[in-house]
Amino acid sequence: MKKFLVIGNPIDHSLSPKLHNYWINKNKLKAVYGKLETFENDLFELTRNLKEGKLDGLNVTVPFKNKIIPHIDILSGHALRTKSVNTISVDNGNLIGNNTDIDGFELSIKNLNYDIQKKSIFILGAGGVVPSIIYALKRMNVSKIFLSNRTHAKAIKLKQLFNDLTILEWGKLPNFDMIINATSIGLNKDDEFKIDFKKVGSDKFFYDVIYEPHQTEFSEAGGKSKNIYENGFNMFLFQAQKAFNIWHNIEPEINEEVVNFLKT
Ligand code: ATR
């Protein structure tokens, strides 16, 4: 029986176990996928368990996508260039750090048939998933990326990885075609954006990385006529599909059945 885990903190909300166990059953594999609320001190033991064959793979989520890197033997190109690992596989006792968030984001855009080339993008937030989003946006040839984060220093740090980013003060609004909410605003009731979305024109694409249903000024503005609104649900599905493929060498199906199963 192969064993997989998603590690992170908080982890309660994660749909990964439900999705992976569904695909494991569909494909009649002898495997099980669980979740573990994790603290930084646990990373050494968890990765040692992988090396010793007590675990077969890990998904890594907030806040460990970067912190896990010192425990990894080999990074894929995507993981190396974003300094972000969300999927660990094992090859001959070596831990391989992969990043499937990049493909997840890219496929979610392609799935919408949105022509993102030459578009101007505004990202809110600088957390764990943002390097992957920037990397994917650049691969899709956007023309310009603005980024703003409440803690300015974290935005500046991202500029060390991607030097053509334009960093804006929190609360400032540039001209853009697509705005991406990569903050966790909306998960806590009292959080708010310091942005007046009424000043944003129409025909904009609002992309919310959060996938739990929630109502914020951001989702409201995205829901206005002529705007497009997408949340992170499809990105979540596609990154999971890629991770499943890495571990089991099978591309599991994404269809209405699995979507309905996850939503009940
Ligand atoms: P981490 O920062 O540990 O990687 P994350 O969930 O990936 O965690 O990122 C949370 C993002 O939401 C951060 O960009 C955070 O901004 P800070 O860097 O200033 O913490 C942002 N965020 C969370 N709550 C916020 C709030 N109330 N207002 C503005 N930004 C917020």
Fold and architecture overview:
- By secondary structure, this protein is an alpha/beta fold.
- The protein has two domains: about 100 residues, Rossmann fold (3-Layer(aba) Sandwich), CATH 3.40.50; about 130 residues, Rossmann fold, CATH 3.40.50.
- It is built from nine helices and twelve strands.
- A six-stranded mixed beta sheet has the order 2-1-3-5-6-4. Strands 9-8-7-10-11-12 form a six-stranded parallel beta sheet, with helices on both faces.
- β1, α1 and β2 form a beta-alpha-beta unit.
- The longest helix has 16 residues.
- It is globular and about 55 Å long.
- The model has no long low-confidence stretch (mean pLDDT about 95).
- The structure holds 2'-monophosphoadenosine-5'-diphosphate.
- 2'-monophosphoadenosine-5'-diphosphate (ATR) binds next to loops.
CATH class label of the largest domain = Alpha Beta
CATH superfamily of the largest domain: NAD(P)-binding Rossmann-like Domain
pLDDT below 50 for ≥5 consecutive residues: which ranges?
none
Number of strands: 12
Share in β-strands: 15-25%
Bound molecules: 2'-monophosphoadenosine-5'-diphosphate
Q: Write the CATH architecture name of the largest domain.
A: 3-Layer(aba) Sandwich
Number of helices: 9
What fold name goes in the CATH topology slot of the largest domain?
Rossmann fold
Write the element-wise H/E pattern from the N-terminal end onward: EHEHEEHEEHEHEHEEEHEHH
Q: Percent of residues in helical segments?
A: 25-40%
Q: Roughly what is the average pLDDT, rounded to an integer?
A: 95
Task: Report, as a whole number of angstroms, the end-to-end distance.
Answer: 27 Å
- Rounded to the nearest angstrom, the radius of gyration is 18 Å
Domain count: the total is 2
Structural class: alpha/beta
Largest sheet: 6 strands, mixed
In the sheet with the most strands, the strands line up as 2-1-3-5-6-4
